[in-house]
Amino acid sequence: MITPPNVVWRKSRRSDNGGQNCVEIASAEQAVVVRDSKDPEGGILAFRQSEWSAFAQRIKGGCYDIS
Question: Which residues form the DUF397 domain (predicted)?
Fold first, then answer.
């Protein structure tokens, strides 16, 4: 997938090292796109809104060890 035009990328407020070692996400038409902040011109992953919401809920619920 080519990066959609006019997306606004954002990083977590909890990013370390000034946001240099994290992922960025953006809302695109019917998708959430994710990229590596260290390589913004590199590849991106795209998820359906429902997939991203389910993933975020599992993180918030403690289903993944992300520490």
Answer: 8-60
E runs forming strands in the chain: 10-11, 23-28, 31-36, 44-47
Instruction: Tell me the domain boundaries of the chain.
Output: 12-60
Q: 15-25: string of b/e by CB count within 10 Å (b at 16+)?
A: eeeeeeebebb
Question: Residue 16's pLDDT is what?
Answer: 65
Half-sphere exposure at residue 48, Cβ-oriented, CA atoms within 13 angstroms? 3
Distance CA 9, CA 62 (A): 25
Q: How far is CA 17 from CA 4, 10, 32, 40, in A?
A: 27, 15, 24, 16
Q: How many residues does the chain have?
A: 67
- Residue with tokens 């289903």, as numbered in its chain: 63
Task: Give residue 47's pLDDT.
Answer: 94
